[in-house]
Design brief:
This protein is mainly α. This is UPF0756 membrane protein DFP95_10594.
């Protein structure tokens, strides 16, 4: 019962915040629960991030597959400083994602704060909740910084 209440609350928050991603995700999970397909929830939890990353990567690689990005475009991207900054950003992002995954494995209760923070970011900052691993990676860095300054 509690899970359904949380999902309905997320649907309402998603509608108010105009976040179709949160609304749709909560609706799908609510349908799964109400149709007694709960046995698939652990599989969704276990494989959902991988599946989401797969589709995100597919979307990002479509310009390569469609031929809109040519080899000359790739080379041109690294002739200016912005291309090199993008390369560094991609490498740092990948590193933070790996730290986020490690952090969630060690401290899974952090996901509550990350999910609530993502919802707050969507509603109040007009963000897009596509980066729970990145959020976990940033959380890991922030935790390390706090521990460094506080001495814990």
């Amino acid at each position: 019962m509690y899970g359904e209440v949380v999902l309905v609350t997320l649907i309402i928050i998603g509608l108010i915040g105009r976040s179709s991603i949160i609304t749709t995700a909560a609706c799908v999970l609510l349908i799964i629960k109400l149709t007694h397909l709960d046995r698939y929830l652990p599989t969704i939890e276990r494989r959902g991030i991988e599946l989401g990353l797969l589709f995100l990567t597919l979307a990002v690689l479509v310009p390569f597959a469609s031929g809109r990005i040519q080899p000359k475009d790739i080379l041109a991207a690294f002739t200016g400083w912005t291309g090199w900054v993008a390369l560094a950003g991609g490498a740092i992002g990948a590193y933070l994602n790996s730290r986020g995954l490690d952090t969630l494995k060690v401290d899974p209760q952090l996901i509550v704060g990350i999910v609530v923070g993502s919802i707050v970011g969507v509603i109040f900052l007009r963000g897009i909740p596509v980066g729970p691993l990145m959020a976990a990676g940033l959380t890991a860095v922030l935790i390390k910084l706090v521990q460094l300054f506080v001495g814990k």
